[in-house]
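Lay summary

Proteins are chains of building blocks that fold into shapes. Our project writes down both the chain and a compact code for its shape. Here are two examples, one after the other.
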Amino acid sequence: MPRGVRGPAGDDRPGEGAPAMREPGSPAATVRTTEQDGVPVTAVAGEIDADSVAPVRAEVCAQLGRRPDALVLDLCSVSFLGSAGLTMLLDAHHRASRDGVSLAVVAGRRQVLRLLAVTELDHVFAVHPTVSAALAATRPA
């Protein structure tokens, strides 16, 4: 168990709901962009919080700067989405809207879906269960 995390009895055993902590120096989030059917798909894995949002934001901004017709943000491997991640998503949505880019978000983990629902961001931008569904939604009718 990582240092500083105590179980419910005050010992070093993880308890029900004990917070997971990153090892020092380990990246909180990884980000990678590929292209599928001519659409950039930016996949993020890990935790998006104040300490890790910068490279994610930089990659999303770089992709939006290319002004593609569409951009898919794949958050299926995101285990934690903090307020900095929510802000980054809103900023991406506003920029995409301003620049005429169709932005689709993919999310499948309960924690992320619940947060998007509670904040009503799932009404602000399209959230899809799979990359395939997001790609289909970005194609012109």
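And here is the second example, written the same way.
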Amino acid sequence: MQLVFGGSLTKSELALLLEQYSSEVKGFMLAMKDEALSDRRTPYESELTWIEKLRSVALPLAAETRDIREKGRDLKMEYTKIEKNGKNYIKVVSGLIKEENDGLSLVAACSEHGTNKVMLSSCCGSGNAR
């Protein structure tokens, strides 16, 4: 869930987030290693490979610092429930997913409407809200 906020993270914040996640995965791997009796590959090894690939692609694209102009904008995230083909969706209609509380609001909206489907536009994390 935290990677959803990636568009608004600086390079150092993203690097820290990926390192924390990598450490968690390594911890799970150690726990499984004690339980595993064979030398087969665990799903966690694939996850570590994915983290490294993400690190090599995303870090060079992340901004070094936050754009100071963004601080003054009021870009409150707003969402609505949409029903299509008998399924409920939560759609972000304006603003940015800037804070953990925005993510928690989406989780709460999903729970309230009995869905796990969220529709995000490309502008939700990039600072290009309409």
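What can we say about the second shape? Residues 80 and 91 are 5 Å apart (CA to CA).
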